[in-house]
Structure formats: C-alpha cells, structure tokens
Automatic annotation (TrEMBL):
Organism of origin: Penicillium hordei
Taxon lineage: Eukaryota, Fungi, Dikarya, Ascomycota, Pezizomycotina
InterPro entries in alphabetical order: SAM-dependent_MTases_sf (IPR029063)
Protein name: Class I SAM-dependent methyltransferase
Superkingdom, natural source: Eukaryota
Length: 314
C-alpha cells in the first residue's frame, strides 16, 4: 500500500477539456536527468489522478547530449559503453553480461545486445525523466487521464508494467487498491526510493521471461525498439499472462508518404532508434484495439487489446 502524500509538492495546472498543447520538439541542451516531480491538479475530487503520489527523488543522473536526431551513431555497445574498451580480456564483456539478473542465461545475442543497449539511458532525456522525452509530464498528460479511465472501466486489480523505467509518469497515478509490479531490464537510480514507498519493481528481461498473471499489462514504447523476431514471442508470453494488453502501435497510412510503413521493414536487432509497427496487421495480427489513446506523434497511439482472443487470421 502506497501512502505518500503530494500536498507539499509543486503542481502543474492545465485546462481539463483542452489539455494544453504538448511539446514535441526534442531538447537540444545537455540532458542531466535531474528528477523534478510534477503533479497535476484535477477537478474531480477523489479521482486516481488527484490522489497521485510523488515518488521521484530529487536526484541527478548524468545523461547524454540530446542531439540524436541530428547525428548518426552505431547502436553497438561499444558506442554507449566506451570504458569497456580497456578491459583486460576480450571476453570480459560476455562474462559479465551473458546472464540477466533473474539468473536465466541469455542464449540469444539479440537479448544480450538488448540488455546492454537499453541500460545506459536515452539520448533525448527530458528534465523530469531519464527514460526519454515520451515519458515526461507534458507528453503524458492525456495518456494519464485515459489510463485512469481504463483502470476504472475494466476494474483492474493486478497491473504489470513492462519497461517501467523510472516510473516518471506512472508515479503520478494513484494505484491504491491495485497490485502493481514494474519490470525493466535494469535498475534505475530511483528504484530504492520507489520501493521504500511501496512500489514492487523487478529487474527482468521481458523478451525471455514469463511475467506473473495480471488483469492488465502495459508495455509502452518498448516494441518500437525491438525487431519482429523478439516482439512476436514476447506477445505470446503476454497473451499467456495478461487478460488485457495496453501497448504502443501506429496506424499505417499510405495515402500520406510520411505515414506509410511496413511491418516487414524494421530493424534486425534492438536499437535506441525506433521503428514503427502496426500491431493490428501481420505478422502481429492483434486486430483492432478496444481503445485507442492518441499520442502526440503522427499516427501513434496506445492500444488496448483483449489478449484472451486469438490473433486474427488464425
């Protein structure tokens, strides 16, 4: 049970019906990853958003310069972890990283690559999160409101959060009465503080490990960084563990050249760059979602799928 109060922390106010324009330009200053908690004021007394709990500590984590869109970098671990270049033996990296923290051996080079790629933060950090601009308070305003609607409508009692990061926006939602577990491939600097305040967090590779059963599983902005041959088996694991899945998808619109894409023309390995995917279409075949929450990005949305139904076309 989480009992922290947010009455002493600053708030961010915005009009409930209009939802102020959300900034989408990537920051170009050096990102520090300085956690500054934001809470929003909601007019509905007693709502989950009104009762949001602050959990982000005032910590500072050194980050990378956010000029990702203007430069081209290799996604190899050598780029993101230059200090490993001075290891005494060529096998030092493999020795230290060939097992995930759950104790299960990683048999796939892609899973090994994924662990290393995502364990050093995102180049496009916002001021209030080290998990990328898409997790910031501004960018998730509408998402948080609609997410609370889903929790209430579907009477969610158990919630899995795959790729939870530092809980920058999830921590703004009151999860009282909900059994929440957050999973990520590595531990964030603020996890100890989060755990002290009641959050269950586990280091776990969702592409190789079964999750506990849950009413709802949210997996936001994860599959867009993974190749299809990692997404497909992960979806099947999710199907076995969750009744409902809320995850990132895009709508392919070939009538507009900048919005047309193919599910079959994506990356071949995990990447900090993202590639769009339409989960309603082959090879994923989830069909049309029950709910679509639009994101402030062309043809991108969070879709809610009933995982008790088999994939379409099967």
């Amino acid at each position: 049970m989480i009992t922290t109060s947010n009455s002493s922390l600053p708030t961010v106010q915005y009009h409930e019906s209009s939802w102020d324009q959300i900034a989408t330009s990537w920051p170009t200053r050096p990102a520090t990853g300085d956690y500054s908690f934001y809470s929003q004021v909601q007019p509905q007394e007693g709502s989950r958003l009104e009762r949001a709990k602050p959990v982000l500590p005032d910590s500072r984590v050194l980050g990378l310069s956010s000029l990702w869109d203007q430069t081209s970098h290799s996604d190899s671990w050598e780029y993101f972890l230059p200090q490993t270049q001075n290891n005494d033996s060529a096998g030092h990296f493999e020795k230290n990283y060939d097992e995930v923290s759950t104790g299960q051996r990683v048999n796939s080079e892609k899973q090994l690559h994924s662990t290393e790629i995502f364990s050093h933060g995102w180049p496009d950090q916002a001021a209030d999160t080290v998990c990328g601009w898409g997790s910031s308070e501004q960018h998730t305003r509408l998402i948080r409101k609609k997410f609370v609607d889903i929790l209430n409508k579907y009477q969610v009692k158990t919630l899995n959060d795959a790729g939870c990061g530092d809980l920058a926006w999830m921590s703004m939602i009151d999860l009282e009465g909900i059994d929440y577990v957050g999973y990520d491939i590595y531990e964030r600097v603020n996890w100890a503080e989060l755990q002290e305040r009641g959050y269950q967090l586990e280091v776990l590779d969702i592409t190789s490990t079964e999750l506990r059963p849950a009413d709802l599983l949210i997996c936001r902005d994860v599959f867009i960084h993974l190749p299809n041959d990692m997404v497909l088996p992960t979806l099947e694991r999710f199907r076995r563990s969750a009744s409902l899945l809320l995850t990132t998808s895009y709508t392919s619109d070939w009538s507009m050249s900048e919005r047309g894409f193919s599910n079959l023309e994506r990356m071949n390995e995990p990447s900090l760059h993202h590639k769009k995917l339409d989960l309603s279409l082959p090879p994923f075949n989830l069909g049309q979602p029950l709910v679509q929450i639009p994101e402030n990005s062309p043809n991108k949305y969070l879709g809610l799928w009933d995982m008790k139904h088999p994939p379409t076309g099967m």
